[in-house]
Each structure stands twice: as C-alpha cells, then as structure tokens.
Amino acid sequence: MFVRLDDFEGLWRIGREIRHADGARATLEGTARFAPHDAGLSYHETGWLCITGQAPVQADRRYLWQPGAHGTITVAFEDGRAFHTIDLAHPEARHACAPDIYDVRYGFTGWPDWHSTWTVRGPRKNYRMTTQYRRA
To answer: What is the pLDDT of residues 60-110, one digit of tens each?
Structure first.
C-alpha cells in the first residue's frame, strides 16, 4: 500500500506505550487530528497520560506535516522548526536533540492502521515509545 500525505487527513484514535530503560512505564489514550493547513496538514494530539503511581494528566502535541521532495513528508514543530523527514518508501528518521538522539520507525503495512516507534537514547533520556493509530 502506497500512502500519501493526504491519506492521513481526519481523526485517529491513538494508544501509546512508553517504556523506560529503568522499567518505568506510561500510557496515553487519546486522539490525533490531521487537518488541512497551508500546503500540508496540521497535527493536533490530545489525550490522557497515565504514569504509574501518579494521577493522569492531559497531554497535548502539535506538529506540521508538509509535502517534501521526492514524495517525502517533512514534519516540523508547531513553530516551524524542523523535526524530521519521513521517506514513505523507507519510513525511518532521526532527530538529534543534543545530547539525546531520537530515532523513529513508522509502520504502514496494515494501513489504514499504522504505528510509530521512537527509540530515544542519551544522557538525559532512555526510552521506547510506540503509538498505534486507528481511524476514529
């Protein structure tokens, strides 16, 4: 299945699991909406983050997804700073946020269900975060 940027438009249910190297675990349940914005899509995620031993907190993230060169998707933070580029043929990317490194792998083989898995390593962070997306 070949996925294009426009295919993401709409509302998605998300489930996330975050596993830290020290054994700590957190989950998030919520939604992500991709809405038309300029030449691409805005991404707005909301949900409840549950960390073991703590009260749930409301979480919120925003990104901009824009068409890139050669069928790629460029992902930027809400303020326009570059985050990473998704090559849909080889959906892996890296974001260096010194001193930590963020590696992501997207999985689109079960489209329209898809997922992202972030592996974050460095002196400040060490965790794996997997998010499952399903059409709402």
So the answer is: 999 999 999 998 999 999 999 999 999 988 999 999 999 999 999 999 999
Residue tagged 């460095």 (tokens): 122
Cα dihedral 21, 25, 29, 32 in deg (nearest 10): -20
- For the beta carbon of residue 82, count every other beta carbon within 10 angstroms: 10
pLDDT given at position 77: 96
Please report the sign of the dihedral spanned by the C-alpha atoms of residue 48, residue 26, residue 15, residue 62. Answer: positive
- pLDDT of res. 47: 98
Phi, psi of 5 (to 5 degrees): -55, -45
**Residue carrying structure tokens 């030449």:** 39
The answer to whether the beta carbons of residues 121 and 100 sit under 8 Å apart is yes
pTM of the model: 0.94
Give the Cβ contact number of residue 86 at 10 Å. Answer: 23
Quote the distance between the C-alpha of residue 97 and its chain's center.
16
d(CA 63, CA 75): 7
Query: What's the CA gap between 131 and 136, in Å, rounded?
Result: 15
Instruction: Report how far residue 6's alpha carbon sits from residue 38's, in angstroms, rounded to the nearest whole number.
Output: 13
